[in-house]
Amino acid sequence: VFPGSSLEVTGVDFLKSQNTRQHHTDGYNIQSLVVRRGQPFQVQVSLSRELRAADKLTLRFGIGENPMKNRGSLLSLKPEREDFNGWKVSMVERKGKECLLSVTSSPNAPVGKYNLHVKTDSNIYKPENGVIYLLFNPWCEDDVVYMANDAEKEEYVLNDTGTIYVGSAYSIYDRPWNFGQFEEFVLDACMYLLDKSKLSLAQRRDPAHVSRAMSALVNANDDSGVLLGNWSGNYVSGTSPMDWIGSVTILQNYYKTKKPVRYGQCWVFAGVLNTVMRCLGVPCRCVSTFDAAHDTEENLRVDVYLNDKGEKLNSLSFDSVWNFHVWNDAWMKRTDIPNGFSGWQAIDSTPQEQSQGRFQCGPCPVKAVREGDVYLPYDAKFVYAEVNADRVYWVVKKVNGKDKYFKVGTETQAIGKNISTKAVGQNRRVDITKEYKYPEGSKEERMSMQRAYSFLRPSGLVPRSGYASTMQRIGANTEPLVPKEPVTKTGLHLEITNTEPLHPGNPLEMAITVKISAPGNWTVDLIGSCQLQYYTGNVQANLGTIKEIITLEGPSEMQIPLKIAPDAYMKTLSSVEDEVLILVTAIAEVKETNDKLTKETSMRFQYPPITVQMPETASLYNDFNCALIFKNKLNVTLENCKLVVEGLGIFKMTTFELGDIMPGRIMKSEIVCTPTRLGEKKIVAKLISNQIKGISTEKGILITE
């Protein structure tokens, strides 16, 4: 053989723009090639001379620190040979010294970062930037994350903006959120989390393991993960959870410092987990449940304690009902459990309860929650209780110096309401409660409940506060298997509404309506209270109470006003760091029959809007102006206002300090945006002040060539 004829590689072209378009990965802001598993991509190899029959050409894909063949972390692929671990390489064409090769990875290959080396005879060529990111592939029928519907993939995998629903069941509102899974360093942050998770290669094949690990790593509780949770109301050493408008800054800061970012609450955890899952290629959505139970003992009951004025007491409860709680659903075929439980799986990164020794939750099949199959992995009992527990009300009274508990109501249909997510391809809320639960009172619901109850052991009716040990058991009767709404002899019914808009700085004008359907003359003792509470159910301030004795001639109803002066709440509103809700609790007792009923409703304050003025369309790299306008229509000065603005692909996140905005004043901030990406883009803005923790808005713009 004459010298110089040994075959060498002189270059490798990863054909990035063609490959990423076909793999729906052209959005990632990263130098390297990003492709999805189970789908062919092409590489062009340039050689020192033409390829001959006797030449050996091998593509070597290695994953991890020290790739080895026998561990499956080094794949050695020769063109036209039988596949290796489900991977194969074929020669597309040979032109002189150029070879065009097509590589198809296995549809259940481990996801992560692979290094490509090309071996020819005894030479090994290491291309610069030879890293290939391999993701899950919802477009591939053989991938367990396969999703058939294109519009759904567009929403749950590719949409980098969205909406998280918060507030209360009485007043649901939307909080725009930038997921930003394609932004710089976000994919690298996800890869760092995968490495940090210590998942084995085999576990990296399976989205169930990956999503469980990510639910643990998005909170910082036991593994210095992404976000530190804080519900204390004191956020001076970090960013208040209310101030975030997206996941990008959080993941970028985390990747830069490798230290937990301060601070998150549930919608922030869910927003970040949604980004991570979409970034890795697993279809994912944010799910908000209103009146979600946090049932620490899996007895399907949450006890609420009231004093004799009808005010909720914080100190006695271990359990709580959150006004809303946000988690995520990830889409996958479950191969580790019996058939029939594929599809959406609940995962939750908010650190609430430990599961197998770590703060992680899920994946729990949504169908298992609906069918009552709460024994299935993972954490189905906890998720089932979040949407199905009963709420039991107790009044605590002093009797001979000792606390006595009197049951004043059980609600069996109050927990897990209005389960919501953003609609596919549209900016509106869609109610998915029926995916989690059968209709209340249906035959299927009863059967599902009996199933669930056979795996959970609901306790008898004993209040279980810290004082429970000091009291006598209230009768030895345990709950009937399927509790019904309490049937009162008089058909007593309560409704709580606001009669005027709830603007900060105005009196809060609300009403409790007492209805009785049975004929006759009835005397009703009504007590009502108004408090400010955090969304976790924690009471922040008592604002006022009413006590009335009313007489009704049934069937009829009466509206009792409950009015709170601004002085009673404005100081609290300005001093807390979180958004608070107005909680109204009413207890009614019919004297003649001893019928008792308790009802609570949480309402949110109503705020004037921010309006965004900008063109409907703009062209790539051509600046356009955007104006954000806010008129303070309230009767109070908004102190220390700041405006946070971010537009993925058009405007980097910026905070503008605006000082105080007096009543009636108009604030206008103008920004110049430079679009760097094509397609539908969005500006998201949020105004934060001492008095108001979050007025958000969003507006879309189409960027064209």
Automatic annotation (TrEMBL):
The active site is at C266, H325, D348. Ca(2+) binds at N388, D390, E440, E445. It is an enzyme of class 2 (transferase). SMART domains: TGc. Its EC number is 2.3.2.13. Keywords: Acyltransferase, Calcium, Metal-binding, Transferase. Binds 1 Ca(2+) ion per subunit. It holds the Pfam family Transglut_core. SUPFAM superfamilies: Cysteine proteinases, E set domains, Transglutaminase, two C-terminal domains. Residues 258-351 form the Transglutaminase-like domain. GO terms for molecular function: metal ion binding; protein-glutamine gamma-glutamyltransferase activity. Belongs to the transglutaminase superfamily. Transglutaminase family. This is protein-glutamine gamma-glutamyltransferase. It comes from Pheucticus melanocephalus. The gene is Tgm4.
